[in-house]
Amino acid sequence: MAKQRLLIVDDEPLARQRLRDLVGDVAGYEVIGEAANGLEAINLLQNQPVDIVLVDIRMPVMDGIELAQHLRGLETPPNLIFTTAYDHHALQAFELNAIDYLLKPIRSERLAAALAKARPLQTEQSQALQPLQQTHAHLSIQGRGRILLVPLEDVLYFRAELKYVTVRTRDKSYLLETSLNQLEQTYATQFVRIHRNALVARAAINGFEKQRIAEGEDAGDAVWVVLIKGIPETLAVSRRHQHMIKAT
To answer: What is the fold of 138-247?
Structure first.
């Protein structure tokens, strides 16, 4: 019977080595790779699928919680087991939502038990972990079973169109299957709502001006628009949200 393939994700080399040694003592499993953060893990997993990911919660660049959110977009998501030093809030969230975790220092028998029952993270579990997420550095654009990571700092605006949201960067547009309200809640510090169908990155706002509508039943009317750094496109600011013009 083929061995289960494991990926270890932890920013501490000694912690990765200890886990590798422990896995070596458990029959039926083998470590096929290591990563120092979530971004490295995703790059590896795109080309080398694994059965189980052992992932630390607190890491730079991309933490374990953000990694877990992105991995759900893979065509065949791996089973996940979180590893962590004592963190009361994290442990409480894991236990309330039946999410597998290993408390450092990890014991061999506890690791074996966790590996035997490892499973993918479900939607409800993923949502329950979002308050623990320390970094919001990337958006994952999913397509054909792969994940394209778009740095959040590159996003100029989000605009709702039917059941999708257009994600606009300086060079390209992407489609994201989510709600504008969810994006607003998740990225409240980086983006501001200017219209019921649009959020703009605060850092991308280059100013505001009034423009006249060229066509349609409101042709000739003057409306406020937001000027966006790096692109000629402008977005209308609704009357309801014009208060933010003075506040910006």
So the answer is: OB fold (Dihydrolipoamide Acetyltransferase, E2P) (2.40.50)
